[in-house]
Design brief:
Elements lengths: L1 E7 L4 E8 L4 E5 L5 H11 L2 E6 L11 H8 L3 E4 L3 H5 L1 H8 L13 E3 L4 E4 L2 E7 L8 E5 L5 E5 L2 E2 L2 E2 L9 H12 L7 E4 L5 E2 H7 L7
Parallel strand pairs: 3-4, 4-5, 5-6, 10-13
Antiparallel strand pairs: 1-2, 2-3, 7-8, 8-9, 9-10, 11-12, 13-14
């Protein structure tokens, strides 16, 4: 399995490409910006995108969705509880005081719920609903030689997602992490929505916001 993560403009969201090396299929997670760069990387890897998934719909995670969707014809997926943010992307940008207009938004093809699975060739990414950073925040878990979770902005290395934005809820966030993410094995690789990777074991022990000492 190919797992490639790289930060994209405007705020350094980690876009993740999940690829099936044998079947040459892929899932693109959080195409926050720089659509041509994401599309070029898919081509370089020889992968056909069969799904676009958003861990949540803050503006820095959705800016290149339309570009990727038009280039690949892949369905776009979010949790329905974040639809109001997706439809209000210009409001988000204006609230941040950012000096640019929202890009044209792609059509949403599927609403994801807790327990759903996103498929692309031999890839299977399981959906875990983790509200708190936003009402519709989700994480994606993948099995393999080493378990992996794409945590979006729910959990960071020694930090957590902010809850002072639209629909954020601190108690929900802590509960999502402690009951759902910390239920994963310690060795689980955590690919965060911003910044470096970590592991569930490290965060369980060392995260000052939700760590269990």
């Amino acid at each position: 399995m190919i797992i490639e993560s790289f930060p994209v403009a405007p705020l350094g969201c980690n876009c993740v490409i999940l690829g099936d090396e044998e079947r040459k299929t892929a899932i693109v997670v959080d195409p926050g910006g720089e659509g041509p760069r994401i599309i070029a990387r898919l081509q370089e890897l020889g992968l056909t995108c069969e799904g676009i998934v958003h861990t949540h719909t803050h503006f820095d995670h959705i800016g290149a969705t339309k570009d990727v969707q038009e280039a690949t014809h892949a369905p776009t997926m979010i949790h329905e509880a974040d639809l109001f943010l997706y439809e209000g992307v210009q409001m988000q940008i204006d609230s941040f005081g950012a000096p640019f207009r929202a890009p044209e938004m792609a059509e949403i093809d599927r609403f994801l719920s807790d327990g759903d699975t996103v498929l692309a060739g031999g890839l299977e990414a399981d959906v875990v609903h983790t509200p708190g950073h936003s009402p519709g925040s989700i994480c994606l878990t993948l099995e393999g030689d080493r378990p992996v979770v794409l945590a979006g902005d729910t959990l960071f290395a020694r930090s957590v997602g902010r809850t002072d934005l639209w629909g954020g809820n601190t108690s929900q966030l802590v509960e999502s992490i402690q009951k759902k993410l910390f239920a994963l094995p310690d060795e689980t690789l955590v690919i965060c929505g911003h910044g470096p990777n970590t592991t569930i074991g490290e965060e369980r022990k060392l995260n000052p916001f939700v760590g269990q000492r």
